[in-house]
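In the previous chapter we treated chains in isolation. Here, by contrast, the input contains two separate entities that must be folded as one system, with a combined length of 438 residues.
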Amino acid sequence: MPRTRVEVYEEIFKDHNEVAGRVLEALEARGCGMVNVLGSPGAGKTSFLVALIRALAPLPCSVVEGDLESDIDAVALRKLGIDAHQINTHGTCHLDAIQVEALLPAIPAAARAVFIENVGNLICPVSFWLGEKARVLVASTTEGSDKPHKYPPAFAGSDLVVVNKVDLAEVMEFDRAFFERGLRAANPKARIVYVSSKHGTGIPEAAAIVRELLARKPA
Amino acid sequence: MPRTRVEVYEEIFKDHNEVAGRVLEALEARGCGMVNVLGSPGAGKTSFLVALIRALAPLPCSVVEGDLESDIDAVALRKLGIDAHQINTHGTCHLDAIQVEALLPAIPAAARAVFIENVGNLICPVSFWLGEKARVLVASTTEGSDKPHKYPPAFAGSDLVVVNKVDLAEVMEFDRAFFERGLRAANPKARIVYVSSKHGTGIPEAAAIVRELLARKPA
């Protein structure tokens, strides 16, 4: 009997989630937890990670950079003394657990947190669990306040929503109430922090929440 | 013999491109041309379209809005007196030609240009020709100057690259030379215009190029 589209998807995701489960276990065994960071192109995921990792110091952190092409972000992070690894997807719109598992031997044994900077895309990466303990969505005031209304799955699946570039909120006429209404409709539980990665606003609060998320027992 | 992944993709795209070809022909027969507008979430595609359509007046234009959920943009356009139609993809990361063909009867016969505002995504919509005569990529200074380096296919496939929010270029430390180096590496031929949809900067120039693109013979 031919399989339905839903059955085929379920089979693909079952295999994929087994790999992600192995990634989670391998990191747990080292006393390390992973955070999957999602967001649109240009939301400021890299700048946020730099500010966050500085605030988490002296916690040993590694970063995995996902991009279609280029190693711009990994090179920039290494120049700042941050352990960074690049995955190029060459056209694919998300990272998968197979790519992350293949990279595990390169992550230093001392690392206690691994941050995945996923491909800039507010849609496709949402469907792929990579073995992370927590998911952080980086939005930005410059993208406008309607994003949770237009892209609910990305917001629904996140533990923490970081609204970056808060220093530009006024000039961008960012409407916090409208943004939060959309966020709450998609996700009543997510934590939310307004940050400026450039000026440090909100970073200590975001770091405290990330520490909490990393300390959770895996579901 | 089982088909390879490439063969399966080729078959899917062959069927899809046939539908897109019908859309192109149906619109040509009415004296109308379609422009596919791509860009990241929050690049300012809708604001650009409003400014563009005003600059193209009295040309009768219609807009097709693609979003996962919500009709925020279509409602906003209609309030401004612009003919607008909403497609909700309910989770899918791009529009396809089947959706556009189904909408054609709703487009007024008087329309001479149809602008598709694709789902906000700098990756997936690139692969789907919808029957458009031209493709416009809306980037923005607030996304940073590295986007053509990181997402080359979106830039490679565009006839016109609009860099929006140029009024924020200075505060965002937008690096034009670096942006244009990346663009030229991906696409030596694309036209480029820096605009502020909010203040009208560059809009007459963008409108002149769109008129030219609409007047082209289809390839």
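Chain B touches chain A at residues 40-42, 67-70, 72, 91, 93, 119-124, 140, 142-144, 146-147, 149-153, 165, 168, 171 (CB under 8 Å). The longest strand of chain B covers residues 61-67. Compare these points with the single-chain example from earlier in the chapter.
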